[in-house]
Amino acid sequence: MEAMDTLPDVKPLAILEALLFVAEEPVPLERIEAVLEERSKAEIAGLITEFQERCRQEDRGLLLIEVAGGYRLVTKPELALSVQKFRGAKPSKLSKAALETLAIIAYRQPITKPEIEAIRGVTIDGVLKTLVERELIRILGRKPEVGRPILYGTSRDFLEYFGFNDLSELPTLKEIETLAPNAMKGEASDESVNEAGTPG
Amino acid sequence: MAYRVRLEMFEGPLDLLLYLIQVNEIDIYDIPIAKITEEYLGCLATMQELDLEVAGEFLVLAATLIQIKSRMLIPAGEPDGEEVPEEDPRRELVERLLEYRRFKEAALGFDELESRQQLHYARRGDPSLPVAEGPLQVTLSELLCAFAAIMRRTPQAAALEITPETITVSERMVMLIDRLTRGSPLPFTALFEGAGTRSLLISTFLALLELLRRGLVRARQSEPDGEITVYLAMEASHGGDGHPT
Q1: Gap from A61 CA to chain B (nearest CA, Å)
Q2: Number of inter-chain CB pairs under 8 A, A vs B
Q3: Is the terminal CB of chain B with fewer CB neighbours within 10 Å at N or C?
Q4: Is A125 on the interface with B (CB under 8 A)?
Q5: A8 touches chain B (CB under 8 A)
Q6: How large is the ipTM?
Q7: Among the partner residues A122, A162, A189, nearest to B113 by beta-carbon distance
Q8: CATH 1.20.58.100, applies to A96-177
Q9: Residue A191 burial class via C-beta count within 10 angstroms: exposed 0-12, middle 13-18, buried 19 and up
Q10: Cβ of A186 under 8 Å from any chain B Cβ?
């Protein structure tokens, strides 16, 4: 079956589509280049653009996005409900505690558990375990200090989960940091807070 | 207080404090400590009235607030009225609050990105495809889960039974290697067949962990939550090492 790729009538665009279809994770450009070895980089870039163009047609259900350092075929957002119906389950969302912890790790990595706890003001053993299990964070090593605490950082799955191509795409904390001193005024009703409270 | 708060709505003491600052329209750079301490303690008291345990971390911040409040009461400067600029006792707390708020807002951003990204579905591992791409390496927690499932199926030996036999982990390591040499890969559960007592199960599991640690065997999963397969390491090496890490 090896001879298949070398048949003259196999279109490179078709090969690209096949690769993207079987891939279970984002495909780095180099891996596409390794398969289409007789094509130049510029040609391959052109193929990817052409593929993306074709996806844009309304009667197509997929998109080719760049995420976590590779290319990934995903369904179009407007089809989410149909896919959900098909899969029978809504994707589960991370808890607020998990998101806060993840945000701290993302911006301050490598970081230890006590350092995260100091920022959040709570203990985070459970959350950290969940994040490691979901492979959104990973252990980067140990900090050379007393007790050699574990250093955590974000994983490639983290990038894919939030749709980042690499860590440089994280929105800058600075934007938030430079908020004017009174910027929080007038936002007295926090949406996460229910003023009604519990009866009795 | 015109509102009731429930502590479990908050991600911690700093979150509660930020809420109180917001809801009272307080300038975070000039917090009226007496007022905010009162409100904060009021929230904790409400919790206690409801007979709910207030987490220790909420009490730690309460102590910090009270300490700041008392420091603010000490008149600054010399007794003869000359005002000496001194560090604001609130400074450290304000810095912590600002730092926490920064990440709280970043988390809101992540929440949005998560929702947006969840509208895109990507292909998942397809168990019907051959695993030539290189199956996932198994994490310790997955191994533990699989082992816990086996332990649950094996009832605790009756208390009266006395089993004088001693099982050593190294014996079980030899047994595992033997089994895998006869046929590798084996499903994780197959390794525990014939191990009828919990102590036997545990020593077998410890032996497996030791073998994994030494790199003599490998454990893999072809799909998330799928069955775990255990290989002899030399067998596994031709399985899929083109796997990017």
Answers
A1: 11
A2: 146
A3: C
A4: no
A5: no
A6: 0.79
A7: A162
A8: no
A9: exposed
A10: yes
Do the domains spanning A2-87 and A96-177 agree at the CATH topology level?
A: yes
Query: Which ranges in chain B are annotated with CATH 1.10.10.580?
Result: 132-236
CB spacing of A181 vs B28 below 8 angstroms: yes
Give the tokens for residue A62: 């997929």
β-strands B136-137, A137-142: how paired?
A: unpaired
Q: Is domain B132-236 annotated with CATH 3.40.50.1970?
A: no
Q: How far is CA A28 from the centre of its chain?
A: 15
pLDDT value, residue B45: 85
B81-117 pLDDT tens trace: 555 567 788 999 999 999 999 999 999 999 999 999 9
Is B105:A104 a contact under the CB 8 Å cutoff? no
What whole-number distance in Å separates Cα of residue A94 and Cα of residue A193?
Answer: 18
List all residues 6 or more positions away from A8 whose beta carbon is below 8 Å from its beta carbon. Answer: none
For the residues B55-64, what does the mean pLDDT come to? 88
Q: What is the pLDDT of residues B151-188, one digit of tens each?
A: 877 766 555 555 566 778 888 888 888 888 887 788 88
Sign of CA dihedral A57, A59, A65, A71: negative
Q: Do A173 and B106 touch (CB under 8 A)?
A: yes
* A2-87, CATH topology level: Arc Repressor Mutant, subunit A (1.10.10)
Domain boundaries, chain A: 2-87, 96-177
